[in-house]
Protein 1
Amino acid sequence: MQAFFATVYIIWLRDVKRFTREGTRVLAMLGQPLLYLLIMGQGLRSAFKMNIPGFDYLSFVYPGVIGMSVLFTAIFSSVSIIWDKQFGFLKEVLVAPVPRAAIAMGKALGGSTTACLQGGILLILAPLAGVSLGLGQIIVLAGLMFIIAFSVASIGTLVAARMETMEGFHLIMNFLTLPMFLLSGAFFPLNTAPAWMQPLMRLDPLFYGVDALRNVIYADSPALSYVVAQTVTVDVLVLLAFSLVMIGLGMMSFSRTE
Amino acid sequence: MTNAIEAFELTRNFKDLVAVNGVNFTVGAGEIFGFLGPNGAGKTTTIKILATLLRPTSGRATVSGYDVVRQASNVRRAIGMVFQDQSLDDRLTAEENMLFHCVLYGVPRKDALTRMEELLDLVGLSIRRKDLVKTFSGGMKRRLELCRGLLHRPAVLFLDEPTLGLDPQTRSHIWEYIRTLHRELGTTVFLTTHYMEEAEVCDRIGIIDHGKIIALDSPSGLKRVVGGDVVIVKTSDKEALLAAARERFNLSGQLDDEMVYFETERGESFIPELVKAIPDILEVRLRQPTLEDVFLKLTGRAIRDTGSGKLDAMRIRRTVHQRRRQ
């Protein structure tokens, strides 16, 4: 048990150290969300008029951009697993007398942490989207981002554990991330989507993530009931259940790797 | 005392390819034992089975007395591993790579620090301990990996092609470090190489080809397989030379690209007779037998001609991949 936690810690620490040391990644971390927010938010703002008083499209899309940024960072942090277990540091872990399941947990936590740091930048940029956040909200949002990131990173870890080649991983991830992103409700609320699409959106874990973020960001807004689909408790429970299943499968996959 | 490694009829198939085919050997405690053979001969597969990274298709093996399949975690605790492909994190410092290893192997921090200091000192990397590994040369990375593999005081250290991809000077340094570390710590070393001249470091060598051990002895014992000296002759008509040698000296030579190899008890007196008897000789060389000659004698081909199987193709792709990343 001690070996398990030590391994999780080492793999997490390594990811965080690598992340903070890489100048380009930190730069991308600052630039990417800004791009999403400015181009997507501002660009789409004029095309979509929301019929909710005191609520414009940019503010509506803001939680969606956070969700999307967390999605992409968390997914791509798991890409490194495939490389790493063939030719990198993970080989060293695979030959060590430690439970391999810890690799899945460590990588998922590492990916969530870096994704959270990236999402944190977007919280600071809230005024640009015309949203004002209190300290309490920021703390709750950080926690939510971590849960969202963890659920996404768990999927990435599970897929990476079963993949031998980068090509295969990219193929699968494209089939997963794009639908997850588009069906997340980042750009349109559930109730305006066509009837056939709504059940699909409800299958998307990111849909619950974005909904949770909206619940907290617009807690005081009179328009809250128009933009959210369920309460934050439901969202968090769904995300946690989903994460548990995914990380469980990921840990099983790693234990079985030869 | 139990043997450090024992292998009985060890076999591993990859689909239709038999990578290791009924291999038997033992390695004594404290020995430096080498597997020598061309790429794709089954060296890495054997090391991976012994290090619990692959399961044997059949047969069994023990390391430090533990079964590599049933007692895998005991085996892992007892071994150190240096992979053919680098497995350091090059965005961490040398020290961080070492300390992470200690945490994984449960080495107490105090011991970790003193051992790290000792080992880094032995391979001359103490002053670079705080530097990022990506600033290291290939040879320095290898030295660091050697140290890291020894931090938890393993009974057996596995080295898979420890000098692959390094320049000749660095290679000879790495062997010196391996000898020094072996002398200081007395660890059993199991290594693989396809560089003939480098296998001389080993106490005993198993020559492996197409998944089978074709000879197993000390380097000098193996060289006795080749009778006496080796005379290498260059001629414009190799077939005629071979025929003439068989007829006049009762010697059968071996062909390799453009040279003809003869083994003879006394090379010094054979050369003038040969030149007298056969006019069409362009070049003659005389030397003591090397492991290269042993391999040529046993398999009928030079080690560099061989390979290009499925596994090699994978390995080449991997090396290219790796270069691209650097």
Protein 2
Amino acid sequence: MPSSPEPSPRVGVLAPPNDPDADVYAAALERAGAEVVRLWFRAVPERLALTVDLDDVRLGDRSLGGLRGLLVRKLYFSFPPAHLADVEERNGRTLRARFVAARERASLVRTALLELERRGTTVVNPPDRVLRHTEKLDQAMQLHRAGLPVPPSLGTSDPGAVRAFFAAHQDAGVIYKPLSGGGQAALLTPADLDEVRLAQLQNAPVLFQRRIPGPEWRVYVVNGHVVAAAELDTTDVIDARDNLASATPVAVDETTGQLCTKAVAHLGLLYAACDVRQSPDGPVLLEVNPAPAIRFYPAPVQDAVTAALTRLLLGGAA
Amino acid sequence: MIWDDPAPPLPTAPDGFFCRSLDVDAQRRDQAATFIAPAFVHGRPARRLWPVFQHAPHVPHLSLAPALRPEVAAAIARDLAQAAFAPHHHAAYRIDVCRRPAPGSVLGRFFTWLASAGAVTWIQALFGAPPSLRGLVPRQVQISRMVTGQGFAPHVDTLDDGVTVVFQFTRGYAAAHGGALAFVPAGTVPVIAVPPVFNTAFVFRPAGVRHTVTDVAADAPGPRYTITAFFLRPDPSNLDDK
């Protein structure tokens, strides 16, 4: 009697429908024979029901329980909300009602993802660790406490602290960026130390860091191994993302490789991209990204990363 | 000892964020400033323009001149001369339209911006963000060309409330060359006639407003070019899809 063919392993990709990086990841998974389910919880709960009970996690009338792996490319829930739309697009006549709705929704979506992981789905990366990415200063502090080189950093709403930090690092310069992400790094200039400008810190505190010179490497780590890296020229730019066109594959030396794998392990991530500045004094970790973009980097980098990630999500070794 | 300071009111700080990349309004202003003449992006006080607009005779309206940065207007005019136009799909509309300008061109970028939330922010800010202009969305952007013999019969674009902006890119027309945007509440006698003057913009409230474009004369020095943007409150049933 002929046996029925084994069904394709099902893997979820959690991302907005128009996310081009998710397209790259999904295409690699499909090439490897996976059935890819694109998930996005934006319609929950107004237009799509999410249900979690002791036996299953269901989106609409479909079970998510059989997912072999789940790649978390973007999260659209958190509390407090990371996006204005998290609150604005909820049902409710008043802002207070929509705020409460957002809180309740975030709780159920987070539980659903955690439960999938408990039920055996390889979640890359677990949602709580992805959400910690919005605490950029805390990440730098964690890595510093683990003995890994990070830029001297300051998060503050105190104009005096900014002036003192600027004076202390005048030789190299100081950059600043949002503490929770979502913005480019910029160079702190003497004009920024103006009283009126610094008073804007009363509206929102800011992350300041010593500027680290040198080319920037983006080092991809999957399941504890460095799988590929690209070098970005940082001449004439503050934020390396302004020079993505310069990205070229680079062979990772042992020191940098160990730095990255240690950092990724310390943060409890299965997959991450480390941004490392190759300063004259050695590599310095700017940031570890738990849900990184991939499409800006050369094809050999994309291929190596997506192949390793696909193996991880399908349950193999990287 | 309490180290927090719970006492109201909050201290007064200058508006905006130290990280400008977080300040969406500032980014949108910068975006508008790449196209629109500085006086209509950073001009103060914008609130004074709203009563001028509202109480204009016959139809709420306002003219902007020059509307765009000169180099932007010149580049768009060049792109319009090269753009692919086709007759409007409604045969009754005697105009040519360009549906997809080249994405990398200045015309393409202006088109994309006019169809974005950033353009809504600009038009609201132009008038000091009055409550009457809340909730607008970019409904339609139309790039149109009229050549000799073409014109537009009297019509009403929409019954929805909002604002229409007609950017003009026609050079060298005299009154006898036609191409005027004419408001005709009844019959054919205009109460307002807006000549096609290069790098001007005519802003008006379109709800139920009957208007026409006079025929382009045989001796006109070239085509009549306009880019028209509709910023309306959502109610798709009211739009006459011209």
